[in-house]
Amino acid sequence: HVQLVESGGGSVQAGGSLTLSCEASGNTYSTYCMGWFRQAPGKEREGVARIYRGTGATLYADSVKGRFTISQDNGWHTLFLQMNNLKPEDTAMYYCAASTDLSCRNDWGQGTQVTVS
Prior knowledge:
The protein contains no helices and 11 strands.
């Protein structure tokens, strides 16, 4: 398992940008997938973006394609989410997650709030 701590959330106006960070500690050498998920009030948690070790392949939700970019440092200790052209519908609690399999859902951070007005 890994421990995950998110940071970088905040309040921005529509069209603005934010960069989220997720610091991972613990058994990071076994991490195969890391990702960002979000949950808005009254809605289910949804996947935003994920990245896979080895190939570096990335996947994005259709709603964020072309606006968000996921990346990680070479040691898989820090995960980033660059968010550009933010929209009010991006408002949510954003969670970092990691796994040793394809799911990206085994370990979770505590979340960081993003509010777009």
